[in-house]
Design a protein that fits this description.
Layout (H helix, E strand, L loop, with lengths): L1 E3 L2 E3 L2 E5 L12 H17 L8 H5 L3 H10 L5 E4 L15 H10 L4 E3 L8 H15 L3 E4 L16 H12 L4 E5 L15 H9 L4 E5 L6 H8 L5 E4 L6 H4 L1 H14 L5 E2 L9 H10 L14 H15 L22
Parallel strand pairs: 3-4, 4-5, 6-7, 7-8, 8-9, 9-10
Antiparallel strand pairs: 1-2
Length: 337
């Protein structure tokens, strides 16, 4: 929980990870390129006081995550959104077993989402069924730009992708998080395009599609899709650190999202360990649209409370203490089975 000026905020960090990018886990030069790109984002968008040494950035471990999120980061609950990247890392980038062990030990604080890749065909579908049971999955993280053999990406509306979404629906997995954001070296820009979200959101109306990084740099494309598809949501990972380096750019992002989607379909994410939540929470609570940007309305405290935690809590049925809830005339804008 975060408190400021007599207001209390329930914080859900809706996009966190445990990764291992140390040299011994790098399968090839692309593993180094990937983590170096991450580190460039971290270094260039963070306040100087929040920049980690490079060696610490390669692997943080569970103890540090628990400290950074829950002891000093104000987070009440966090959701793992792993990326596998098996073509770049010997044992994968996201550390499934360590993250799941932490979740089992701290079920009140952590939710574990897993991943799938439709290019694995029937074998992958079998694995998805096993994973859904083992991890008690409510959601997943899809990485459409991930490489696999000669393939350098896939689309949500591919035939095999539909098979996986249909299976997920049968298994009760209804929160689909999709990386649709800035290009990460060496992945291909076009594989992150948001256009394929439109079709699956129309065809799977009982699912929620959380577009992580809100489609940046394709914000306009994303907003035009999301305003027509009420089960499409925006994740602020990567967008929110621009409060520090480009506050007017972030004001434009959040202003457009609030105009097209409203505050019920936007989720706070630190994208840990790209960034730590403490300074992001503090800065967002204090953030206001500059007065000269008159096309956007001022941010309200209620809007900030929804974005910082109440929206994701509703999507994942995370209990919120009564004193931290907001009175509502309408239910949260999430898909219901």
């Amino acid at each position: 929980m975060y408190s400021k000026d007599g207001e209390n905020y329930f914080i859900v960090d809706a996009h966190v990870a445990l990764w291992d990018a140390r040299p011994e886990n790098q399968r090839n030069i692309h593993g180094k390129q990937f983590i170096d790109c991450f580190y460039d984002y971290h270094r260039n968008l963070s306040p100087e006081s929040e920049v980690w040494p490079y060696q610490e950035y390669l692997y943080q471990g569970g103890d540090r995550l628990m400290h950074d999120l829950f002891e000093v980061g104000y987070v009440d609950h966090a959701i793992f959104q792993p990326a596998y990247l098996g073509e770049f890392y010997n044992n994968g980038f996201g550390q499934t077993e360590e993250a799941f062990r932490l979740t089992e030990a701290n079920p009140d604080k952590l939710t574990y989402n897993h991943f799938w890749d439709p290019r694995f065909g029937e074998t992958g579908l079998k694995q998805l069924r096993e994973d859904a049971k083992r991890f008690n999955l409510k959601g997943c993280k899809l990485y459409t730009a991930e490489w696999h053999g000669e393939s350098r990406g896939w689309k949500l509306d591919d035939p095999w992708s539909y098979r996986y979404l249909e299976t997920a629906q049968e298994l009760g997995i209804k929160n689909i998080h999709i990386h649709k954001g800035p290009t990460i070296r060496p992945l291909d820009r076009d594989a992150f395009d948001v256009a394929d979200v439109d079709k699956v959101a129309s065809d799977f109306t009982e699912m929620n599609f959380v577009v992580e990084h809100c489609g940046l740099p394709r914000l306009e494309d994303f907003c035009w899709i999301a305003t027509q598809e009420p089960n499409v949501h925006a994740g602020l990972a990567v967008a929110i650190p621009f409060m520090h380096t480009r506050p007017k750019y972030f004001a434009q992002i959040i202003g457009e999202l609030l105009y097209w989607l409203d505050e019920d379909r936007i989720q706070f994410s630190s994208d840990y360990a790209l960034w730590t939540p403490r300074w992001l929470v503090e800065m967002f609570v204090d953030f206001q649209i500059p007065e000269d940007m008159t096309e956007y309305a001022p941010l309200t405290t209620a809007q900030k409370k929804k974005i910082l935690g109440l929206n994701a809590a509703a999507m994942y049925d995370i209990p919120v203490p009564a004193e931290l809830q907001l009175p509502r005339e309408e239910p949260q804008a999430v898909a219901v089975a």
